[in-house]
Amino acid sequence: MNDNRIVERLNRCFEDIHDQDIRIMEVCGTHTRTISKSGIRYLLPKEVLLLSGPGCPVCVTPESYVDMAIEILNLEGVVLVTFGDMMKVKGTRFCLSDKQAQGSKIIVVYSPEDALTIAAKNRDKLIVFIAVGFETTAPLIAVTVRQAKARGLNNLFFFTALKCMEPAIRFILQDGRNKINAMICPGHVASIKGAEHFRFITEEFGIPAVVCGFESQDIAAGICLLLEQFTGKRQIEFVNLYKRCVSFTGNTMAQRMMNEVFDIADGDWRGIGIITNSALVLNDKYEHLDAVKRFGIKIEQYSSPVNCLCSEILLGLKLPYQCRLFGSVCIPEHPSGPCMVSSEGACAAHFRYGGDRKNG
Ligand code: SF4
């Protein structure tokens, strides 16, 4: 469907919306960025609010994890290997960029597999890979873990904060305060886990849900489909509009890789707290590569920084503009909270491209 037809279809949906409170949450950072960048929010009537859930891996990585990464980094002979967007995420006091500026050895990579090469070339060092992400990143990390074992790289360890999306969505929908009544499912995770993985949103919670792609047209088409259910043009249903990438059962090979390497455990989500069965941790077969066990790390839980509303934003209770620090003290160059760090964080996306002030 071309852009004009989508705008026409959106407009037809709007005509039928009267005094409804429609709160649509997207739970993928890439959706969050596209929604802000494309200006879709500005097309929507006042009854329709788009909220950003915990779909940015950096935003949900707890302060304690950053603190522990720094603690490992301070050990003799350790080199940290990380994706770039973890560099500015603050722990209770410092971020990895601060430590790099002080001379600590940190290497930024684009793929977990780069850690294999770094470990092979630096056998006299202890290489620790900062493994952060959702089920989208986890299969590649699983492959890297398997290769590290197969190649006998005894100096490479994985410090994991990998998370599963489905328990977090359940947690959010069970929190009735946010009144979320429609959902744009995470397309990337769906491509790995399959569209069916998210059918529970409609079947258990009775709300419309759609899997859609990442172009602005994809998202607009997804919003149309959701609104048509509110205006009675369609029955409440779960729909996969992203069939070009998301199959019914997903990428079974990637799922096998994850099952081979990881166990499910309770996970600590920044600003939210512990969500049962929401984390992926290395299983017994690979525990000798687990940085937590190798370095005897004890992970504490902390609360969010004072005045940062990331917790409420991730739970769909507040919008970035409602934070007093937004755009003044807290900007992407000097983020106070994690939602301002990655370009896929809700606050960073609202700051760069503008956002919804209906409740601001
Ligand atoms: Fe946190 Fe900054 Fe967002 Fe406020 S603007 S919620 S301090 S990240």
Give a description of the structure.
There is one protein chain. The chain is globular. The model has no long low-confidence stretch (mean pLDDT 91). The chain folds into 3 domains: 3-40 and 166-240, HypD, alpha/beta domain 1 (Rossmann fold); 63-165 and 250-295, HypD, alpha/beta domain 2 (Rossmann fold, 3-Layer(aba) Sandwich); 310-353, no CATH class. Helix content is 36%, strand content 18%. It is built from 15 helices and 11 strands. Strand 10 (262-269) and strand 11 form a beta hairpin. The protein has helices at 3-15, 29-38, 40-43, 63-73, 96-101, 114-121, 138-150, 165-174, 187-193, 200-205, 216-230, 252-261, 291-294, 310-314, 346-353, and strands at residues 22-26, 48-52, 78-83, 106-109, 126-133, 156-163, 182-185, 209-211, 238-240, 262-269, 273-282. The protein is α/β, with parallel strands linked by helices. Strands 4-3-5-6-11-10 form a 6-stranded mixed β-sheet, with helices on both faces. A 5-stranded parallel β-sheet has the order 2-1-7-8-9. Bound molecules: iron/sulfur cluster (SF4). Residues 308-310, 313, 320, 323, 325-326, 330, 335-337, 339-340, 347 line the site of iron/sulfur cluster (SF4).
CATH superfamily of the largest domain: HypD, alpha/beta domain 2
Number of DSSP-assigned strands: 11
**Ligands bound to this protein structure:** iron/sulfur cluster
User: What would you say the CATH architecture of the largest domain is?
Assistant: 3-Layer(aba) Sandwich
Task: Walk across the major sheet and give the strand order.
Answer: 4-3-5-6-11-10
Order of helices and strands: HEHHEHEHEHEHEHEHHEHEHEEHHH
